[in-house]
Amino acid sequence: MPHNPITLDILRALKAIDRHGSFAAAAEALNKVPSALTYTIQKVEQDLNLALFDRSGHKAQMTDAAKLLLREGQKILDQLDMLATNAKQVADGWEVVFTVVFDTTIDIAQLFPVIKEFQDVAPFVRVKLKEESLSGSWESIQNNHANLLIAPRIGLPLDTDHLETKEIGDMEFTLAVAQNHPLTTYPQPVAHQELSKFPVVVIPDSTTKTQTMSAGLSHQERHFYVPGMTEKIKAQVAGLGIGYLPKFRIQNELENGSLVEIQTADNRTSQGKLLLAWRKDNNGKALEWFIKRLSSKSLIE
């Protein structure tokens, strides 16, 4: 390929001239003699067949071409600095990218303060959040597509020899419907067979496998599918169906009356543990930080 005269030395030279205001001051900052810096700039101008400085006045001024090199070159210099930082941090045990998969029962907004704290501690680590549901959540950690999983115990695979888990809270699911739903007029507790008269709002399992799992009332015949828990709550507030919801996610709706709890004859509620899960072969510093922090912060308040 043709020789490219634009080198890191040239970009650093332009940056120094811009910062210090003259060739002489820039040369001193770069530990060069002024004549060497002048020759370097002139050589690039000759190779590119363009002027980087307008020398018609008392003081040489950068041309638009030089300003472009300076502006775009700064991005390259910043990326090189970041690359060096990342290499050092990886050598020190930090992950370059840290992926957190959370089950759709978790409110993503509860994670934001934790992510902000982590950014202050390790700004060089790129954090990715991904939402999954049911066995799809556990599939992500099994297949090494995530560094850390936050999910209810439901869906926990039988083969967990390669996983570590830690309980971080108790979850309660309750049957809830819109304030004007017909079930609110039924005598409480409601017989379980009465529930089959109404469509159920269902979140599909996000697993990529052919065999999926279901939870709650999803075994009933009439379904209305939504992509996640946030949409499920909104759909049930809108009266589109019934279903079990995590109680910590609907406290406001229960208090303002837009959702109403329904008692069933079998007094069925769902209790479960919220878990952190990670692979035993993952021992990075970001993982260590998140486990410690999430163990001390409730995500189900």
TrEMBL record:
Domain HTH lysR-type intervals: 6-63
Keywords attached to this entry: DNA-binding, Transcription, Transcription regulation
Keyword Transcription regulation: yes
A Pfam family recorded for this sequence: HTH_1
Name used for this protein in its record: Transcriptional regulator
Keyword Electron transport: no
Annotated signal sequence range: none
Family assignment from sequence similarity: Belongs to the LysR transcriptional regulatory family.
GO molecular function annotation: DNA-binding transcription factor activity; transcription cis-regulatory region binding
